Amino acid sequence: MHCIRKITDDLYWVGANDRRLALFENIHPIPRGISYNSYLLLDEQAVLFDTSDWAVCRQFLENLETALNGRKLDYLVVNHVEPDHSASLEEILLRWPDVKIIGTAKAFTFLHQFGAKTEGHEDPVKEGDTRCFGRHTVTFLAAPMVHWPEVMVTFDTTNGVLFSADAFGSFSALDGKLFNDEVNYDRDWIDEARRYYTNIVGKYGMQVQSLLKKAAKLDIKMICPLHGLVWRSDLGYYLGKYDKWSRYEPEEKGVMIVYGSMYGDTESAAGAIAAKLVEKGVKQVEMFDVSSTHVSHLISESFRLSHIVLASVTYNLGIYPPMLSYLHDMKALNVQKRTFAIVENGSWACTSGTLMTDFVTKEMKNCSVLENRLSIRSALGPDAEPQLDAFVAAVADSVNG
Ligand SMILES: Cc1cc2nc3c(=O)[nH]c(=O)nc-3n(C[C@H](O)[C@H](O)[C@H](O)COP(=O)(O)O)c2cc1C
Ligand SMILES: [Fe+2]
Ligand SMILES: [Fe+2]
User: Average pLDDT for residues 71-88, to the nearest whole number?
Assistant: First the structure.
């Protein structure tokens, strides 16, 4: 059965959802699935914006054929070549052999590398070019590294729709509701949108900033991304989030405590720190076991909050491996402008505190580490309370100050 949604008089969502895939990019857990959005414009020419992942191709084609209702497809605009959006392209060529494909020169290079036979169909475009499909004229803006080098976004100058590629996308399949005003966004979507942005595009803040600057010059009425919801109201809210994330500014003042503990003593200290922080009036305090929390969630929270407490055992004279992996991910995704506080534990030769401090100060950008470090020899006894209080006071002062 087809499943399509009307967006405007002549624009349709013909994408498809994957609720079976466990890991996006074979890395990130997506318990709520993912949507691959594809849009069909029925002007004098019939124009498709991007396709779908291979896994949902059957549903996607049924949707597309239903929306076309016997018309032939004239154009396919490839904003992004990553196979979650272009894998179904060859099925399009088989069904509509006259289709012209619009994309950047690099997009065609990548399509060839992936084995797509687009020769004879190609209509390469660059930034500022326009194409008219009848009533609608579109223009193209380069968006390199949001999220691959070939990416462009397409702006429909007739109705103000921005086809934004992966930008403004989100994890989570669509459950019937397509528009941002059909959902309770802050309750049901923002966390998955943040986790998508920070883990998929987070590294490329500078490139997102340059796209936002170009977008600011356009009269955008609607944003149609390749994953997640279509935005047709309150665009400033989402543009504001993207501006913050891409400048690596925290959304909220607050503390995430990430702890790595084998026998529970470092965990116990982390719990005491959390309770004392709340008592000191810090409203946002979140605890995460680094061993059991997928790092994509840790990254997402690291973008959200201003302060990060790293609490790690020493492990064979090193940082606890899952903590080290979280640190490496933060560096890889360019997390910056955060304040860290360090809790270390060692039973005979404690090194984790100095190693974590060195990592944050030498490997990451624009981050600081509070001087007050909490050092645990195996376990905190009751006599350690003054030391614990001093540590918590330093963190709370930094958050509240
Ligand atoms: C496999 C393993 C390796 C460890 N390596 C070190 C080490 O090199 N130096 C050290 O001071 N403590 C070492 N420890 C002790 C831990 O750092 C920590 O003090 C102990 O696990 C208690 O904290 P926990 O209850 O939070 O796990 C090691 C513990 C384990 C189980
Ligand atoms: Fe992508
Ligand atoms: Fe994508």
Answer: 98
Q: Give the residue-averaged pLDDT of 322-351.
A: 98
User: Which of 289, 347, 351, 356 gets mutated to test ligand 1 (max ligand atoms within 8 A of its CB)?
Assistant: 347
Question: What are residue 314's DSSP bridge partners?
Answer: 319
CA 155 to centroid of ligand 3, rounded, Å? 18
pLDDT in tens, 119-169: 999 999 999 999 999 999 999 999 999 999 999 999 999 999 999 999 999
Ligand 1 nearest-atom number relative to CA 313: 17
Q: Between 3.30.70.330, 3.60.15.10, 2.30.30.40, 3.20.20.80, what CATH number should domain 5-246 receive?
A: 3.60.15.10
**Stretch(es) of the chain classified as CATH 3.60.15.10:** 5-246
Question: Which residues approach ligand 1 with their CB closer than 6 A?
Answer: 261-266, 313-317, 345-350, 378
Give, for ligand 1, the residue of 314, 319, 348 to mutate: max count of ligand atoms closer than 8 Å to Cβ.
314
At residue 58, the pLDDT reads 98
Cα-to-centroid distance, 82 and ligand 3 (Å): 7
User: How is domain 252-400 classified at the CATH fold level?
Assistant: Rossmann fold (3.40.50)
Report the pLDDT value the prediction gives residue 401, as an integer from 0 to 100: 86
Domain with CATH 3.40.50.360 in the chain: 252-400
The contacts found for 390-397 with CB under 8 angstroms, 24 or more apart, are: 391/273, 391/341, 391/343, 392/273, 392/276, 392/277, 392/280, 393/280, 394/341, 394/370, 395/255, 395/273, 395/277, 395/282, 395/307, 395/309, 395/341, 395/370, 396/277, 396/280, 396/281, 396/282
CB atoms within 10 A of CB 401: 6
Minimum-distance ligand to the CA of 347? 1
CA of 362 to the centre of ligand 3 (A): 32
> What is the whole-number distance in angstroms between the Cα of residue 322 and the centre of ligand 1?
14
Separation between Cα atoms, residue 24 and residue 28, nearest integer Å: 5
Are 51 and 38 in contact, with CB atoms under 8 Å apart?
Answer: yes
- Give the residue ranges of DSSP H helices in 69-182: 83-86, 89-95, 105-113
pLDDT of residue 154: 98
